[in-house]
Design brief:
Helices cover 36% and strands 17% of the residues. It is α+β, with helices and mostly antiparallel strands. Bound molecules: flavin mononucleotide.
């Protein structure tokens, strides 16, 4: 698919078919995650691939929406803040930025493979930490289900270019 077609095709999918996702597709999505750039190339992130069927109860405690557990897998990007770059002069740690770029690589690759996704940040962080058995340094940043879409795009208008851009 043309790159810009992928951008236009992606939408937040909030309903999934139960069909399995082919292993080659999962592998390609995970390869895309490894190719994501990170600050200073520190790569202080991990990706969890969660089998929905085996983990329905646990997942529902993290994000309580029926559609969240419909797709065969859910991915989670977690970061280790001690292994991501901190801007020294104002102590800004960029772990959320790194994780978001990783998730964007995952989501756009999945879209290219005709799969549906949805960025999820509104989850219960401490339930996620418990479920993923994360050690202290790690923080979960974003989840997404990955599966074949079974819900249409809802209307989400965007601002026109001249409202978001300033040439100075
Ligand atoms: C960082 C981020 C976090 C989001 N978290 C959630 C979420 O927790 N639950 C949800 O249903 N949608 C979530 N969304 C989806 C947005 O609501 C959605 O992207 C936006 O309304 C635009 O719609 P579209 O994705 O269909 O283009 C999130 C999106 C982003 C980028």
């Amino acid at each position: 698919m043309e790159f810009f077609d992928v951008i236009e095709k992606r939408y937040s999918v909030r309903g999934y078919k139960r069909d399995e996702v082919e292993k080659e597709k999962v592998d390609k999505i995970l390869k895309a995650a490894t190719l994501a750039p990170t600050g200073v190339n520190y790569q202080g992130f991990k990706v969890f691939v969660i089998d929905t069927k085996k983990n329905k109860e646990g997942l529902k405690k993290i994000y309580n929406q029926d559609w969240f557990v419909e797709a065969p897998i859910v991915l989670c990007v977690v970061v280790d803040k001690s292994k991501t770059w901190t801007r020294p002069w104002d102590a800004k740690n960029i772990s959320d930025i790194d994780a978001t770029i990783v998730m964007d690589h995952i989501i756009l690759t999945a879209t290219d493979l005709d799969l549906g996704t949805c960025y999820i940040a509104a989850f219960k962080k401490y339930e996620a930490i418990k479920f993923l058995n994360l050690s202290e340094e790690y923080e979960p940043v974003l989840f997404t289900p990955i599966g074949y879409p079974d819900a249409d795009r809802s209307y989400r208008p965007r601002k026109p270019i001249d409202e978001i851009v300033e040439y100075i």
